[in-house]
Amino acid sequence: MSAAAPRPRAPPSPSLGGTLSLWLGLQGLVGALAVAAAVVAVNAWTLEARQADLLQVKSAIVRQELARPAPAGAAHDLQQHLAAFLAGHEAMSLSVRTVAGDLLFDSITAAGTSSNARPVRTIAWRDRWPGAGGQPVDVVLGLDIGTDIALLQRVAWIVIAASVAAAMLSSLTGYALVRRGLRPIRALAVALDRMTPSQAGARLPERGQPAELAPLIQHFNALLARTEEAYRQLESFNADVAHELRTPLTTLIGSSEVALRRSRDLDELRDVIAGNLEDLRRLAFIVNDMLFLSRADRGARARRTPVPS
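User: That's the sequence. What structure does it adopt?
Assistant: Structure tokens below.
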């Protein structure tokens, strides 16, 4: 016969404290990231508003410069005024061209530097300059926003790192708080482990327990009371059965011993067997009652069959 295959081990149950702390950490991370997104969005909106206001203010100054009366051919004076306007504003650029494409002023060319790939926010409009005979000119005013973008990125990384750190801290503190909150359950487990069948009337303590555990403890104590009542009924039933069985068995044993002490004729043996048969019938009734009660609900709805005397 081949040996029975070992039963597979049940997978370990997940830890309630670990699960709750994990969900607390995830919830904290989601909340912190939401706050971080709001902080970044507010900073981005603030920087964009500041950039728009700065471009509007500077464009008004450029319009004033272009509106100055100037004789024909005064492009050099215009360049000096615009260069003075941009002095100290390295993040700004300005380009003025005629509609024919003639370049009147270009801050990048004037500074002697080449254009780079830094992000620039621009505002463009068409204006008139008296020095060009009142002809329209196209003006493009730009603002280098690379510094603002870098600042916004740094803020984003800082708040994201702070969010992750806050989530980890929330998970650790949540785990400690959950373990502290589960102390009553561990105490109940210890109390259950100490309970034995010999401790009649033992109950779980109901005072000082959390409100969430109170119904569970009450139902469990009620279950213990019903179980004890069932055990008492079972013990009483066993005592009754033992008493009912002892009398016919004693009678059977005694009559059999008396019959075997000496030789007896056929009629005497028939009388002994007839008496034993009555006791055997009583035993059969008792056994039938036991079988019936074993199928009933712990004897609560069982009807005991009368034993003939």
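The chain has seven helices and four strands.
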